[in-house]
Design a protein that fits this description.
Blueprint lengths: L4 H10 L15 E4 L14 E4 L1 H8 L2 H4 L2 H16 L3 H30 L8 H28 L7 H18 L9 H17 L10
Helix pairs in contact: 4-5, 6-8
Length: 214
């Protein structure tokens, strides 16, 4: 009578539709009797083995090799259950494997960053980023202050005396803090770099790109 379709499907599933000998996938995977029908072998899952046509021909017709089919089938079933298991144990093994690989990658990344930047310079702290943002803000503000003074002197812009007085006092504090030689004026390239750095750091700190006007 031969194996039922239900038995064939169960055997193929247990082997993940691969030959238990060569472990290759096959669209014509056969379900073979380990103990032949002529010898009284039953049509049961325990007596069935998934074989590709090539291995079926090689092993099925060779009595000396047929004795190894059950051992290799059971080994392959075990490998499939461990490697592709969908139960809690299988998921735990996958999670453990991912953890090991992620840990290994993180260690590699930290080692590579240390080679590039030196020890203890792998990451910028939030405090360092905020300090750099404050400096960039001052540099950009001072350049805008100089542009504003130029427009006032040429009559392109009017400003209330009390507002101008506050601005001049703030500008003097920046010169005292940074040194006038470090405050510009900037070339177009330098101006673009300052604004780009500030936008990038503001994005790192959580601002959206659409609101990074500097």
């Amino acid at each position: 009578m031969g194996f039922s379709e239900a038995v064939k499907l169960e055997v193929r599933r247990k082997a993940h539709f691969k030959c238990c000998i060569c472990h290759e996938s096959s669209v014509s995977l056969e379900v073979h009797h380990i103990i032949s029908k002529a010898e009284g072998g039953p049509d049961t899952i325990d007596n069935a083995a998934p074989l590709c046509p090539s291995c079926h021909e090689d092993y099925g017709a060779n009595p000396a090799k047929r004795t190894a089919i059950r051992v290799q089938r059971d080994f392959w079933y075990e490998q499939c259950a461990k490697r592709y298991g969908s139960g809690p144990d299988g998921l735990s093994q996958v999670e453990e494997l991912l953890d090991r690989r992620l840990t290994g990658f993180q260690e590699f990344l930290e080692e590579r960053l240390e080679q590039v930047h030196g020890p203890n310079q792998l990451y910028r702290s939030e405090k360092q980023i905020l300090e750099e943002l404050e400096i960039l803000f001052d540099l950009i503000w001072y350049n805008r202050h100089l542009n504003m003074l130029c427009r006032v002197e040429t009559g392109q812009e009017a400003i209330k005396p009390e507002v101008l007085e506050v601005a001049l006092a703030a500008a003097q504090r920046k010169r005292d803090e940074y040194g006038e030689e470090n405050l510009g004026p900037w070339t177009d390239f330098e101006w673009g770099m300052l604004n780009g750095k500030m936008s990038a750091l503001r994005w790192v700190m959580g601002d959206e790109w659409d609101f990074l006007d500097t």
